[in-house]
């Protein structure tokens, strides 16, 4: 048993670090750190995306022939880990990680030629139309109707929680093409242009004052019929592929550990003037320091869990059942970490800015520190980690059935 | 032994409910968007109902409400998700300004007063250090002055010959610099810097005792919010369908709601105890209430799913107000630790 | 609003205290404190029962005409509270609190005359035959068969978790008298003498080494037909009466608070030699002291919950829905308190005596203190609080349905 | 990167499984009922499998097993719910007696050694204070000497010129008084008092390092037990019917089992990290493992219902062994606090 990377992987790690040292500028880091919602804003991601595209390190989960870098699972892990530690912005994963691989796998040569380069160049910005109002995590309850009329589809209905739909020019959506057959079977996977009169986007502002998600309405929206991915009725299969593709190797722990390191640094600087009598700085508060210690132990164990999955993938074996726990574990850890940050900052942790962005010249003045200013919106937005992408409750039912056989 | 509200308390509760009825999210947002985050007309209405004067002594032209009366109001305001900072700008000044010439107009809702007690870098410390009074002039900086963006006068804790004393400062004076900033519950706080500002005082109020009372009322308000979140979530689970049945048919959600119910009952009892046993440790009880109320808030958001996250619903507002109150005059972790150490 | 007892109740409280000061001798206190299982052993309870019977304070939940003291709910509460604080032994509630009230309510004059005086005198010691092997909390699944043969019933089957069956001379049991009708409807409530060849008792020793519960087997056991309570088929109704009778006013918090006071006292005496660096005694350990603080806050709130229920009962109004939470809350609190005691004692908390009793001259030598010796068996036996009498899970389902309407 | 067991580790694991197969509760109880609580014939068998020698260096006639090898054995013993105190009377003496003349017979299973480190009233302190060595004679009292009722020799920590040193004392010497008492996991510990007993030593072992290793192995054993409890409970839920369906069909139990599963995976990962990263903080990792393992134990008992409470099933035995191990060389709360303070 060992937990060490092979020499060639260590060399790659060095290369990644050098690249990040060189290319990840202060503006990008500030933009990444200054986003209290899940996705970094497009002004930041576009710049970072261009840098990665130039290096050929952008579409890391695509086949080489479609523009991927041909990395091993270990290389992917190392790249993500180093990006997380360096504080790189998140990327527009809806195009790169979700619809991209779907087009690579199910798309026709024409679809590939048409869409993939524009995902890489950033010309197309994608959003996802899965959930519908009133259906939450129950994806099979799709009601949005796409009717074939000549050489196009006419789409009517609505989607909710469409992240960054207000930035996107394309949406990939689960739509019902055949209402006569059973639930899952009538669903198709359709690409729809956003810039048309039939599509409207209505913001849903979070309790943290962030506008990240939307409701998206289709009112006789149109899309050419060759924007259907796969066959009619194949939508559920494609959605499952997408989900499983997402569930391969993961690299969530390093970002959590990096955040804990930052919190520890803040705790060393944050004066303790509380009634708790600890004096000095907050790192000496037994409650803050023990919460930090417990979360670190949890996150470090979780890092090994991710490495155990990686070790299987690296050997070409299917990932173990632990994979099912990754989303559950990381989202709960994240929420506890975000809550600790708020608690660390005392009254300063209670400020909640109403304008965005929280980086660059437009950012509002902070009280205490930028980290304090970011703590409350991050905590509030982070309550969604256990809701979106299948709530904790839905995840547990799936794991109970599929992994535990209950 | 009697846990029923008395006649007056029923009247106060009804007054709050009437006052808040029809205040939907849009009204809430509109009030918060005003400069300083407070709708002064509504504030005056609140005052006219006697709800500010309730906190002032009868000698001071108030109604001399008991702890029970005040807690009923706080809990009802929490339950109604009122947007008005009654605790911060109503109760606290009415108590702190006892005997002061400002009190009458504060009780009448004409003058808005804010309490400036927190200092940068000193966490929850109640003793003033950075703000000093010398020769009748106040200098230094306060932060987290709730309602500070709208205030006409500030009640300020200041270091005065090594002790902490209370002074009143005109908020509009040239020597007072007010920088408002938004806080978690949607309200507006301020950083207030005094540059040798003229100070009236010291006031005669017992600062420590008033803070203890404020903790009790913060706890009562949290209980009101938690009860509301419980009721709203229960209703949601009964009506909202998913996977072909009401959410409330799922056993895990049923059991979760029983846990929520148990905690809501527990904190209601905790506040009753704080009310009825004068020697009860207020900060610790508030901490106990806060920890449970935060958990209830988290569950309410979670069980509402995506909609629970949005600014449209009261759920998030409830959670945010709870979080703010949980840290007012000390957070749960510090308060439990202090209580444990004092044992 | 107020939380004070009325003057006449305060006078009663004084009377109870004086009585306890006078009658509750050291041996009884030691026996009560020295029982790490749920029920005090009969050698202790018999002595205490006789004292209470003489005073007329024994069958507190019986009607006056059957021998009850005619107390108000507040008096009952005060009596129980003072007993808990003084450390009085528990009483054989299976007779006094369970079958007693059933006989008072459903029994014929002959049954009352026959059984009630012998419960008070202690001549009869009762156990309860409810659960059956393989059915756990599912009481309606009764399989034990009672067949009417002439003027008696012949009983075959088995019961499990029969507390103190090895001490009892009578068992009250749910038996199936009519297997042809639906689940609940064929069940009857039958009294069966234990001292006969057809009844055998097999001990079930707990993981704490305590023998408190048993499996009880009926192999053509007999009981006269006039030992049937109520009608044939009425068993389920009677069982429900019994449950609800149990769920009236409760007085669990004072014992919990008394235990926390004891733990605090021990924490002030228990030397801290741990690596935690706190020095002095364990009361200065921030983890021990904060656990104690949180549990005390919880238990004090719970005390008020019980008083709120009492206030309703005292006014002659039905108890509020909070009643449903009492068992759930008290059992979980109790488990946490017992766990804290174990943790307080360090290595001394790990001793687990194999012989009983743990009071009097027969008690084995302890390591450190008697309190330390008792901590582990109390903790282990206490895991049952959330299992017996309807597990936490069963309770929550009932509350969700009956109180929350889910 | 590789988390697979190597060939030798697979062999050790298989050896443990063979050794424990057929050891039902009756056998377990019989062994525990022997004087001193240890079946010496079984102990010798364990030794003959090389499982004690595995912990001793090759220079000392042992097999010089790696941490990984030892952890595999500890985890397998935990999973098999072995009754033998391998960690306490196998691993610890084999490590502590490095270079001593006693080692050979200890490795061979002929001589049983117990480690006397805990002192009355000094909680988890590792430094000796109450037991002193003066002029080659040992005096003072130890408690919680695991296996102490059966031991032939004691390895004892003793204050020696202000430092803590290790000595060996013959358990049968007239100057040694042994009072056995039963402990939580069903084993027998002892209070041992030395009345100027002849002591051999000091031994050369690095006490601090050996305790760190013992913490790692205690954690590994807890993981093995937790995995076993998880598997047994899962099986029980699948087969046991209540209210007309298998318990495992109830959603709350399904979700609970997912939580159990998540924690079991987490502590397996924690132990792997402790194994493979020499700089990992062992006491803190053991604390993390222990807190989770105890929770798993509680759930296993709860989900087994009444049967989980009984001495008949392995469930309670698993919980009890976890509880004992959780406090060996420090309990979780103290260890987390120390770790937090050292940060």
Fill in the keyword field for this structure.
heterotetramer, A: 406 residues, alpha+beta, Butyryl-Coa Dehydrogenase, subunit A, domain 1, Butyryl-CoA Dehydrogenase, subunit A, domain 2, Butyryl-CoA Dehydrogenase, subunit A, domain 3, 3 domains, four-stranded mixed beta sheet, four-stranded antiparallel beta sheet, globular, B: 343 residues, three-stranded mixed beta sheet, 12 helices, 50% helix
Structure description:
The complex is a heterotetramer, with 2 copies of chain A (406 residues) and 2 copies of chain B (343 residues). Chain A is an alpha+beta fold and 406 residues long. Chain A folds into 3 domains: 7-91, Acyl-CoA dehydrogenase/oxidase, N-terminal domain (Butyryl-Coa Dehydrogenase, subunit A, domain 1, Orthogonal Bundle), CATH 1.10.540; 126-233, Beta Barrel (Butyryl-CoA Dehydrogenase, subunit A, domain 2); 251-403, Butyryl-CoA Dehydrogenase, subunit A, domain 3. Chain A has helices spanning 7-23, 26-33, 42-55, 73-86, 93-106, 109-121, 235-246, 253-269, 286-314, 323-344, 370-382, 392-402, and strands spanning 126-129, 145-149, 152-160, 170-176, 187-193, 199-205, 211-224, 228-229. In chain A, the strands form 2 sheets. In chain A, strands 1-4-5-8 form a 4-stranded mixed beta sheet. In chain A, strands 2-3-7-6 form a 4-stranded antiparallel beta sheet, with no helix packed on it. In chain A, β2 and β3 (152-160) form a beta hairpin. The longest helix of chain A has 29 residues, at 286-314. Chain B has helices spanning 7-20, 25-33, 40-48, 67-79, 86-96, 103-107, 207-239, 251-276, 282-304, 306-309, 314-327, 332-342; strands spanning 113-116, 132-134, 137-146, 153-160, 163-170, 176-182, 188-198, 241-242, 245-246. Chain B has 3 domains: 7-107, Butyryl-Coa Dehydrogenase, subunit A, domain 1, CATH 1.10.540.10; 113-198, Butyryl-CoA Dehydrogenase, subunit A, domain 2 (Beta Barrel); 207-342, Butyryl-CoA Dehydrogenase, subunit A, domain 3, CATH 1.20.140.10. In chain B, β8 (241-242) and β9 (245-246) form a beta hairpin. In chain B, α7 (207-239) runs antiparallel to α8 and α7 (207-239) runs parallel beside α9. In chain B, strands 2-3-7-6 form a 4-stranded antiparallel beta sheet, with no helix packed on it. In chain B, strands 1-4-5 form a 3-stranded mixed beta sheet, with helices on one face. Chain B contains 12 helices and 9 strands. Chain B has 343 residues and is an alpha+beta fold. Chains in contact: A-B, A-C, A-D, B-C, B-D, C-D. Chains A and B meet through α9, α11 and α12 of A and β6, β8, α9, α10 and α11 of B.
